Amino acid sequence: MYLRILGSAAGGGFPQWNCNCANCTAVRAGDPALSARTQSSIAVSSNGQDWLLVNASPDILAQVRAMPELQPARSVRDTGIAAVLLMDAQIDHVTGLLMLRERRTALPLYATPQVLEELNGSLPLVRVLSHYAGVQAHPLSLSEPDFEVAGLAGLRFSVMSLTSNAPPYSPRRDAPLPGDNIGVVVEDIPSGKRVFYAPGLGRIEPAVACAMATADVVLVDGTFWRNDEMQVLGLSSKTAMDMGHLAQSGPGGMIDVLAALPKSTRKILIHINNTNPILRSDSPERAALTAAGIEVAWDGMAINLGTDNG
Ligand code: MLT
Ligand code: MN
Ligand code: ZN
Q: Is there a domain that residue 89 lies in?
C-alpha cells in the first residue's frame, strides 16, 4: 500500500488567510521551525498509479500539482484519482470535489448516506456536479462496512462511525447521527498491514480503540493541543470537544490514547489547526510528542506498507 499525505492542516490551512496568531505570523515570515500546510486530505494506492483520495480538500489543485504521482498521464486528459472517499461533509473535506468537474467520466464517490444527503441538500455539491461529469455515488453501510474500490486491487477498506460533529452548516450540527463522521481502516490484503485514518475524532469508542490497537499505522485527529485552545486565544467560544476534536494534552487526551498502543505502532497526528503549538518543531509540546513516539504529519509525507520499501 502506498499512502501519501496531501494536506495535513485542519480547515483554514496553515497559514490561514486571515489569521495573525503566533504560528501563522511566524510561518509567513519564513521561520524555519514551521512549514506551511494545505487542508486535510490523503491518497492511497496499491499500484502507485490509481489512487483513492480520502477527502477532497479545497487545496486539491495545489496538492495534485505537488504530487506528480497523481498524474500518470496515460492519455491527453487523465488523472490518477480513481475515486474519492469522504470522512464527513466538512468544507475542508468536500469542496475539492468541485475542482474535479472536468473529469471525462462520473467520479466514483464513497460516502455515508448522511454525507450524501448533505451534499444533495445543505451543501448541494453533488447536484451542482451533475451539470458537469457528475458523481457515481457509492453509499457506504455501517452495518456492512467492508468494501473494495475498482482500480485498487489488493486493498480492503472498512469504515466505522465516530463521535465528532456535523459541519456548522448542517441541520445536525451539535446533534450528529451515526454516519455523519466516519473513520476508515485500509488493509493491504497481501501483507495484512493496516492503516487507521480518522482526521476528526472526538471520542475513543470501543470500535475505534480496537481499530487503533490492530493497526500498524494510526493517523488521527491532531487538531488541537488544548481543549480550550481557541478560547484561550480569544478566537472562538467553542472547545475542541464542542467541535468534535479530542485534544492532545490532558488526562484521556490523544497523547494518553496513543501511548496505550503497542510501541511498534506508528502514531501520526494529522488535521492540525494553525493555532496548535505542535506545528513548531522547537516547541516543548512537539518535544512531548516526540518523547511519546508520536509524529506530526506534513504535506508530502509518504508511507509505504507491505511494499519492498516498507
Ligand atoms: C473541523 O474539522 O472542525 C473543520 O476543520 C472546520 C472547518 O473546516 O471549518
Ligand atoms: Mn476539518
Ligand atoms: Zn493562525
A: yes
Report which ligand 1 atom has the smallest distance to the Cα of 243: 3
Task: Indicate whether 309 belongs to any domain.
Answer: no
Domain region containing 88: 2-304
Q: How far is the CA of 92 from the centre of ligand 1 (A)?
A: 6
Question: Which residues of the chain, if any, have pLDDT below 50?
Answer: none
Burial 28-40 (b: 16+ CB within 10 A, else e): eeeeeebeebbbb
Closest ligand 1 atom number to CA of residue 91: 8
Would residue 140 count as lying in a domain? Answer: yes
Which listed ligand is nearest to 27 at the C-alpha? 3
- Single pTM value for the model: 0.97
Q: Is residue 310 a part of any domain in this protein?
A: no
Measured in angstroms, how far is the CA atom of residue 77 from the centroid of ligand 2? 31
278 C-alpha vs ligand 1 centroid, how far in Å? 18
Strand 2-7 to 51-54 pairing: unpaired
**Interval 22-75: pLDDT, tens:** 999 999 999 999 999 999 999 999 999 999 999 999 999 999 999 999 999 999
